[in-house]
Design a protein that fits this description.
This protein is of the alpha/beta class and about 130 residues long. The protein has one domain: 3-Layer(aba) Sandwich (Rossmann fold), CATH 3.40.50.150. About 30% of the residues lie in helices and about 25% in strands. A four-stranded mixed β-sheet has the order 1-2-6-5. It is globular.
């Protein structure tokens, strides 16, 4: 039931959408379906806020890289890097990826064809 609701066309419209630890449960193709559904529903001046683990660039050890291996082995999901989130953005452009004190980062995305942009999103986590 939950899967069908996420993947069907957006029947609920809003100016802002928040996904918290949703996209890492899905493979790239299903993420594109979810985000495409949201893109069809969100207005051009809307904002999509995504709370997810973002794998850092580089080869150094990081907990999210271990979690990514587990996600790919046990589930059909994956943790992603910033470029991987951008590649699956499905009609959105990433405005910012903000690290938090929690393991998750805040990804701010807006419709990529937006003409009437809303003011920059600012985050103060201190």
């Amino acid at each position: 039931m939950r899967r069908r609701r996420l993947l069907r066309d957006g029947s609920c419209r809003g100016d802002a959408y928040l996904l918290s630890l949703i996209l890492h449960d899905w493979n790239d193709a299903e993420c594109v379906q979810i985000l495409s559904s949201i893109r069809r529903a969100i207005p051009s001046n809307g904002v999509l806020l995504i709370l997810e683990n973002v794998i850092p660039d580089g080869t150094e050890r990081h907990l999210d890289k271990v979690i990514d291996t587990i996600m790919m082995t046990i589930l059909d999901g994956t943790e992603r890097t910033r470029p991987e989130y951008a590649a699956t953005a499905a009609g959105f452009s990433l405005d910012a990826v903000v690290a938090t004190q929690a393991p998750t980062s805040l990804i701010v995305a807006r419709p990529s064809d937006a003409r009437a942009r809303i003011p920059d999103f600012r985050v103060n986590l201190e």
